[in-house]
TrEMBL record:
Organism: Halobacillus halophilus (strain ATCC 35676 / DSM 2266 / JCM 20832 / KCTC 3685 / LMG 17431 / NBRC 102448 / NCIMB 2269) (Sporosarcina halophila)
CDD domains, per the entry: DHOD_e_trans
Cofactor(s) needed: [2Fe-2S] cluster; FAD
Leader sequence residues: none
This protein's name: Dihydroorotate dehydrogenase B (NAD(+)), electron transfer subunit
Lineage, uppermost ranks: Bacteria, Bacillati, Bacillota, Bacilli, Bacillales
Gene that this polypeptide is encoded by: pyrK
């Protein structure tokens, strides 16, 4: 993991309370897997860094793309940054999504701000000749993003809580109908969604990316632990360094 002052080269709103930021620096050249994140020091006013998943990578330009949602004072302050500003960034952090050699057809399931890291994953899957089907869930049309970008990579189904975009309902309404059309699934989103997906697809190989609050971001403070099955000798995993991506049966939701 590298610490670097990365330059903001693009910054814009993409949906309600959701922003896209492109950062330039050497960290972009060190991203190994989709699903990794960076840890951002927003300013001296905030003691803790903010973890943000990497949504896309352009190593030839030394650029990474981030999408983040305003969830508090820290991310609100991040929206006030300007193009040309520099951010104190640690990264890339965590263990990303593995792409097994025998994957032929993949299902991607994203919910809300859990969608961004799945975009870079989808691009990597398609580059390897793997068929990708995506199911995205949002609260409403005004909070949706990356839908058109995913459509360039394969079939896309969208659900919203209020029915303002796609189908009204939950992502599990659609994933249940897609059973049998994929050999591996990858998911990121709220814990309640991940639990529902893991239970519904318990006989399919799956990987989950966990969303947890982090302290240090390097595994020292144990602020982001998740539990593992009772027969596991350790009993927990740290999301920041053992994850954020885990095998679906590796963690207890």
């Amino acid at each position: 993991m590298r610490r670097e002052w990365m330059e903001i080269v693009e910054h814009s709103a993409v949906a309600k309370d959701t922003y896209r930021m492109v950062l330039k620096g050497q960290i972009a050249e060190e991203v190994k897997d989709p699903g990794q994140f960076v840890h951002i020091q927003v300013s001296d006013r905030f003691f803790l860094r903010r973890p943000v998943s990497i949504a896309d990578v352009h190593p030839d330009k030394s650029e990474i793309t981030l999408l983040f949602k305003v969830l508090g004072d820290g991310t609100q302050a991040l929206t006030e940054k300007q193009t040309g500003d520099k951010l104190d960034v640690l990264g890339p952090g965590g263990q990303g999504f593995p792409i097994e050699e025998d994957v032929r057809e993949a299902l991607i399931v994203g919910g809300g701000i859990g969608v961004p890291p799945l975009y870079y994953l989808a691009k990597q899957l398609v580059e390897q000749g793997i068929k990708v089907t995506t199911v995205l869930g949002f609260r409403s049309k005004e909070e949706a993003f990356l839908v058109e970008e995913f459509k360039e990579l394969g079939s896309v189904y969208v659900t919203t809580d209020d029915g303002s975009l796609g189908e009204q309902g939950l992502v599990t309404d659609r994933t249940g109908e897609l059973r049998g059309s994929f050999d591996t699934y990858f998911s990121c989103g709220p814990t309640v969604m991940l639990k529902a997906i893991a239970n519904q697809l318990d006989d399919v190989r799956g990987y989950l990316s966990m969303e947890e609050r982090m302290g240090c971001g390097i595994g020292a403070c144990f602020a982001c632990v998740v539990h593992t099955p009772e027969d596991d000798e350790k009993g927990y995993r740290r999301v920041c360094c053992d994850g954020p991506v885990f095998k679906a049966k590796e963690v207890v939701l």
